[in-house]
User: Which sequence fits this backbone?
């Protein structure tokens, strides 16, 4: 089964992050020929430094990566064509798809949502108005009625080994220029959008009695942090101390190293889609900042996830989790919500493990994709 996956980088790193994981898993775990078309290789390079942004064609982890320009080379269309995260295929490529016999399985791989409509839309056909082609919606999601989540077979065993191995974690932190873990210290990774609640949260951590070590990969949070610290610029590799808070600015990590950061921390602030999913697979407590959408469409998305995530929590823990996540997403009132949540971390850690096991019991997205495609290619 040959694959063409198309990815448009709208902004940030989520589109390419999701597309790359999918392409890599198809290639590495299923030995499938995959071509990944990307319109912004420079963004790709941020999460995979091995990518050469000047090349039209290159190979990485068995995947053929192609710069997606307006003129596509004359290649044979794959048996499966994926529009990752609802990007639009060029008409010229669609015309070529129509000439292929049999026509390719054409999928619109949508954004992840826990909302009920996701299950309703999953698998629905959308016939082309003129050509003998039919696109299907493929919805990632958290239930068996959806396409599942991208989760490699190696992930849980590797994570468990890493989390059980203090020497591996020490080496990891040392490579990042960070001090070794200390007893009683809370280690937090922070990856978020510009968030007006952040200064209040930093202040709450600084004023607290427990030591908090916050690790911030370079990105959108830095201007707010710099303003709160009262400094001009925050370079990667710098460390700042304010009361009980130690703050370290990290370079942007490659995707696999970022996974390890999530595995290594006691609590992860994540955003968008891919870091959010990976933080759930880290089996550690998390706080999610949803990607802001028009008409506040991200708020029902947030609540739909919280409904699932908090379903098996006791009511007090559920209310605390909801309060903190709402405060973070509404960018207000977070400092008040934090102290209770800080105390609830042991219970949240236990819950994060249960949630991860629950997710792991479902077939992953690639398995579901393969089953779907085999049915249509028969
Ligand atoms: O970058 P994002 O904000 O991406 C967003 C969302 O995907 C959103 O839904 C989409 O509409 C928008 O992009 C266009 O957040 P996300 O999804 O977490 O993606 C970040 C990627 O960057 C993820 O693959 C992890 C990776 N990453 C690294 O590789 N190294 C790092 O140091 C960090 C912090 C992240």
Assistant:
């Amino acid at each position: 089964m040959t694959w063409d996956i198309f990815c448009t980088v709208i902004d940030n790193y989520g589109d390419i992050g999701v597309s790359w994981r999918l392409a890599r898993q198809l290639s590495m775990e299923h030995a499938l020929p995959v071509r990944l078309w990307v319109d912004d290789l420079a963004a790709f390079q941020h999460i995979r430094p091995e990518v050469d942004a000047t090349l039209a064609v290159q190979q990485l982890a068995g995947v053929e990566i192609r710069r997606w320009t307006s003129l596509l080379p004359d290649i044979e269309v794959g048996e499966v064509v994926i529009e990752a995260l609802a990007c639009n295929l060029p008409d010229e490529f669609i015309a070529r798809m129509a000439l292929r016999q049999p026509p390719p399985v054409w999928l619109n791989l949508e954004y992840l949502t826990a909302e009920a409509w996701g299950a309703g839309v999953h698998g629905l056909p959308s016939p082309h108005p003129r050509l003998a082609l039919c696109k299907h919606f493929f919805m990632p999601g958290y239930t068996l009625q959806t396409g599942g989540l991208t989760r490699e077979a190696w992930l849980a065993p590797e994570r468990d080994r890493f989390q059980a191995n203090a020497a591996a974690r020490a080496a990891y932190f040392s490579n990042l220029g960070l001090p070794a873990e200390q007893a009683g210290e809370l280690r937090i990774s922070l990856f978020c959008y510009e968030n007006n609640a952040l200064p209040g949260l930093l202040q709450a951590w600084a004023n607290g009695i427990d030591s908090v070590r916050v690790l911030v990969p370079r990105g959108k949070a830095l201007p707010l942090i710099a303003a709160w610290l009262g400094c001009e610029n925050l370079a990667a590799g710098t460390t700042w101390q304010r009361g009980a808070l130690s703050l370290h600015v990290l370079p942007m990590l490659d995707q696999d190293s970022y996974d390890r950061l999530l595995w290594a921390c006691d609590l992860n602030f994540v955003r968008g889609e891919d870091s959010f999913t990976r933080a759930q697979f880290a089996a550690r407590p998390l706080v999610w900042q949803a990607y802001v959408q028009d008409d506040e469409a991200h708020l029902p998305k947030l609540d739909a996830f919280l409904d699932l995530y908090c379903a098996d929590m006791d009511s007090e823990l559920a209310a605390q989790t909801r309060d903190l996540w709402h405060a973070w997403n509404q960018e207000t009132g977070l400092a008040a919500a934090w102290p209770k949540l800080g105390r609830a971390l042991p219970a949240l850690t236990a819950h994060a493990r249960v949630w991860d096991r629950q997710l792991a019991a479902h077939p992953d997205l690639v398995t579901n994709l393969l089953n779907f495609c085999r049915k249509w290619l028969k």
About this structure: The mean pLDDT is 95. The pocket of 2'-deoxy-thymidine-beta-L-rhamnose is lined by residues 10-15, 17, 47, 111, 191, 217, 219, 252-255, 258, 271-276, 291 (CB under 6 Å).
